[in-house]
Structures are given as C-alpha cells and as structure tokens.
C-alpha cells in the first residue's frame, strides 16, 4: 500500500509564492492603459475642415481650474426642451505661464453610449488671455432643442484653452509645439428633459400601450391553444345511439308492414269474383 506524505513547509511556500506572482501578473494585464493624445495647435482644432472640437481627444492642464453655476429658475437636472440656459463660468490660472481661453461648448449625449451626440450646443468663442494668478468670468448660453423627446440625457460642458505644453506632455510625441490646445470637461451629469406642457408622459403612455397589447395577445393565445384542452368534453354513448337507431328502424319496418297489409286487404275486396256477387244478389 502506498503511503501519502504530508507536504513540507518549503513546498507550501513555493505554492504560495506561485499564487502571488500569478495574481500580480493578472492585475498588471487587467490594468487599462491611459488614453493617448496628440499635441494639436489651435489652428488645427478650430479649422473649418477639421472634425468638431468636441470629438477631439485633447489633454487637460492641471493649472487651470473651472467653476460654474446655472442661472435657471428650475433645477439644472431637469428642464423643459427649448429652455434657454445661462451658465456662469469662472476660470482661474494657477500656473506660471499665461493661457488663452479659446472657446466653450457643450453637447447632449445618449445615456447608453456617450460617444453618440444627440445635440451639439453652439460654441462660444472667448479669445481672452489670462495671466498667472488671474481669473476670468463669462456667461455661456445654450438651448436644448425644443423637439427633443422627454428622456434622460448626459450633458457635458467643455472649456478649450491654449498654452505652453507641460513637461510631461512632451514625452513620446512626434512633434513639439510651443503652444497646444487643452480641453477641460467641467460639467458631466445626467439631464432630464420633461415636457411640462403635456399632461401625459409619452414614455408612460407607450409602456401602458405595450402592456395592454401584450395582455390581449396573451389572452388570445390562451383561448386559442389552452382553453380547448381545459374544456370538459361530452361523453359519447355509442351503445345507446346504436340501439336508438335500431329501434327507429324497427318501428319504420313495422309501420311499413301494416301499410302493406292494409293495401292487400283493400285489393282483395276489390277483386271479388262475379259468382260471389250473383250469390249475394240471389
């Protein structure tokens, strides 16, 4: 018989080290890589033939701080389509070099896919340079389209500015520019569009309509396929039916026989011989 030996301490240590190394390697493989970007000048970003600035992957500078507030009567998380919204934007330069504020813009995105733009707000070109330690305040007005369907969207507001590239941004770049465009997304939150003029919520109306149609289809399918199987069937009395048919046939034959018998008697009376008549006359 083979005797099993208990594992030694060295073997247990080797197994534990192997598990730790495997765990570290798996975490390194699952770590997502940082998004790459290309240093771009303002002329390239805001060129008429270039893609929309909101679709560009631009870096953000940690030296620029943005504060904002919405000057609307209702909560910024829920507005009516077609409402004019004023956003008061404040920009502070905390770096040692000046920055030129180029423009501010925003968009509405699909909540299911952020890369899908439902509406792009008009860009506001500022073109104002703020020095080190300086601040700038301006108002940005935008308007969601009045024909937007009442639903939840993701609204983002972005600030585009130009300045000298940071030291860490100059690494792994094909070209070095004296001035590059930065982008800071200072607002990114869900915005609900509610049509207050309509007393009926379109979404609830369609949900109710789909529910009613589904129940009707379910009832029709149940009545068509399941109700006949559940309905009790009438028992068939084969014997009694056959007996009834046989008795009816016997009654018909008996009646027919009586009719024939009566006809025969009538014929016999009509066919009496002349001698018999003469005898009666005598």
Automatic annotation (TrEMBL):
InterPro entries: TRAP_alpha. The keyword Aminoacyl-tRNA synthetase does not apply. One of its GO terms (cellular component) is endoplasmic reticulum membrane. It is found in: Endoplasmic reticulum membrane. The keyword Transmembrane helix applies. Its main location: endoplasmic reticulum. The chain crosses the membrane at residues 204-226. It comes from the Eukaryota. This is Signal sequence receptor subunit alpha. It comes from Galdieria yellowstonensis.
């Amino acid at each position: 018989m083979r005797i099993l030996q208990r594992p030694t301490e060295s073997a247990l240590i080797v197994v534990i080290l192997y598990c730790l190394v495997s765990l570290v390697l798996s975490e390194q493989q699952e770590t997502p890589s940082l998004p790459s970007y290309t240093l771009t000048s303002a002329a390239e970003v805001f060129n008429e033939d270039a893609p929309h600035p909101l679709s560009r992957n631009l870096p953000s500078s940690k030296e620029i701080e943005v504060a904002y507030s919405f000057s609307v009567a209702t909560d910024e998380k829920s507005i009516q389509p077609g409402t004019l919204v004023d956003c008061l934007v404040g920009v502070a330069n905390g770096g040692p070099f000046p920055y030129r504020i180029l423009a501010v813009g925003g968009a509405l995105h699909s909540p299911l896919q952020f890369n899908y733009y439902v509406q792009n707000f008009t860009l506001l070109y500022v073109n104002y340079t703020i020095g080190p330690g300086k601040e700038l305040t301006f108002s940005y007005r935008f308007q969601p389209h009045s024909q937007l369907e009442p639903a939840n969207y993701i609204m983002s507001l972005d600030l585009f500015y130009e300045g000298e590239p940071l030291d860490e941004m100059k690494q792994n770049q094909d070209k070095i520019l004296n001035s590059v465009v930065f982008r800071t997304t200072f607002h990114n939150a869900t915005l609900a569009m509610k049509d207050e003029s309509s007393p009926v919520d379109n979404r609830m109306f369609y949900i109710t309509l789909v529910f009613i149609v589904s129940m009707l289809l379910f009832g029709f399918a149940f009545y068509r396929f399941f109700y006949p199987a559940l309905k009790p069937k009438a028992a068939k009395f084969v014997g009694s039916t056959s007996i009834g048919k046989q008795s009816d046939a016997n009654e018909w034959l008996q009646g027919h026989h009586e009719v024939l018998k009566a006809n025969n008697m009538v014929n016999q009376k009509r066919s009496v011989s002349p001698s018999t008549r003469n005898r009666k006359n005598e």
